[in-house]
TrEMBL record:
This is Nuclear transport factor 2. GO terms for biological process: mRNA transport; protein import into nucleus. It is found in: Cytoplasm; Nucleus. It comes from the Eukaryota. The gene is LOC116304746. Coiled coil: none annotated. GO terms for cellular component: cytoplasm; nuclear envelope. It comes from Actinia tenebrosa (Australian red waratah sea anemone). The keyword Nucleus applies. Its main location: cytoplasm. Keywords: Cytoplasm, Nucleus, Protein transport, Transport.
């Protein structure tokens, strides 16, 4: 188990949402060919397909405001990251969201991580 799981997870989250909010196409290096994204129930596999989905989202300006970031160590020096926050896009009202990442190390030294799994859900109220 990686003793630095909290630092790794929170550092990743800072990088991920900064890139997402400024230039979504720059997220591609964070994924691999075997990475999986489930976005609102739709599944995408591979860095290219995932990035195409994220870039095609129907808003220009976007800002993630994070409420909580919880991290846990998982086997093989991996890190489980669960994020809750608000998504503010264009002039729309903010929407609550949750996102879960499974991060795996790129190499034996576990100095660089990639996203193996990514699950995103808006917290929409149906009524």
């Amino acid at each position: 188990m990686n003793p630095n799981f909290d630092t790794i997870g929170k550092g990743f989250v800072d990088t991920y949402y900064t890139l997402f909010d400024t230039n979504r196409s720059q997220l591609q290096p964070l994924y691999r060919d075997h990475s999986m994204l489930t976005f609102e129930g739709q599944q995408f596999q591979g860095a290219i397909a995932i990035t195409q989905k994220l870039v095609a989202l129907p808003f220009q300006a976007v800002k993630h405001v994070l409420t909580t970031v919880d991290c846990q160590p998982i086997p093989n020096n991996g890190v489980l990251v669960f994020v809750v926050g608000q998504l503010k896009s264009d002039d729309d009202h903010p929407h609550g969201f949750s996102q879960t990442f499974v991060l795996f190390p790129e190499d034996e030294a576990a100095t660089k991580y990639y996203v193996m799994n990514d699950i995103f859900r808006l917290a929409l109220h149906h009524g």
